[in-house]
Amino acid sequence: MEPIKSSELITNDDGSVFHLHLHPEDLAEQVILVGDPSRVEMIASYFEKIEIRKSNREFCTITGYYKGYRLSVISTGIGPDNIDIVMNELDALVNIDLHTKEIKEQKKTLNIVRIGTSGSVQADVPVHSFVISEMSLGIDGVLRFYRDNEMICDAAFEEAFIKECHWAPLAARPYAVKASKRLVDKLHTEGVTVKGVTLTANGFYGPQGRVLRLPIEMPTVNDEIARFRFGDYKIINYEMESAAIAGLAALMGHQATTICLIIANRANGDASADYKPHMKKLVEYTLNSLIR
Ligand SMILES: O=P(O)(O)O[C@H]1O[C@H](CO)[C@@H](O)[C@H]1O
Ligand SMILES: O=c1cc[nH]c(=O)[nH]1
Is the pTM of this model over 0.80? Predict the structure, then answer.
């Protein structure tokens, strides 16, 4: 197979991958993705040993050990566009030779867990709940650029959602992708976490049905989303990355899911006064669940 051209997979002077500034040996097989760069340092404060610390733009990485388990924590910044960068570069680090730019015969599988903040659309999933995305519905469009996206998407779910939530014809077509069942089962504890469908939006305001000064195209969409059911599935929350992570992971052969702390409840108008101590609890819970 022809090597990938330098314009398509850009590397830096030191041979590291373009945006993440990482070399293959910098990356652990267990990856934790977070949006906020300051969350990387907070998570690493639980590590007994730090191996590397690298950053470029909003992409900060710390690789270290938690209870003897090697992990890389990486910030993605905000939004699914950054997920396209991070997932492609993570996959390149393990499955493409960065010197020859040839795709490796032997593929590696990464375990990827995003720890994020999120807004609940369900009145009975209050602020400070922990929510695991067993499925994500992307309204961002990123996955649609990749061939065979429809093979890993649930078209019946998408059609039912479009119809019942009166989805605007000019908005991107939602894509429904399942997370890794193995990781979801590992992270879920009855009575501690809530499992469900997460909506991945490509914006925080209009795309999540928030109105400040500008009126929006689908003013009643959040009520419809909260009422929507598909079999046993129910939409629980909004954030901005999980569908692109789950979808690209599925196409690339990696395992991925997302666990979020609810910091706003859209159904009753609540917002957390101080979510940071609760985020620490979610991080402790997630780290200990991953090693069990
Ligand atoms: O707290 P993080 O991980 O950034 O996640 C959520 O917070 C950001 C919006 O405020 C988006 O990235 C959203 O997905
Ligand atoms: O409502 C919210 C809260 C956090 N992050 C989001 O994307 N939406």
Answer: yes
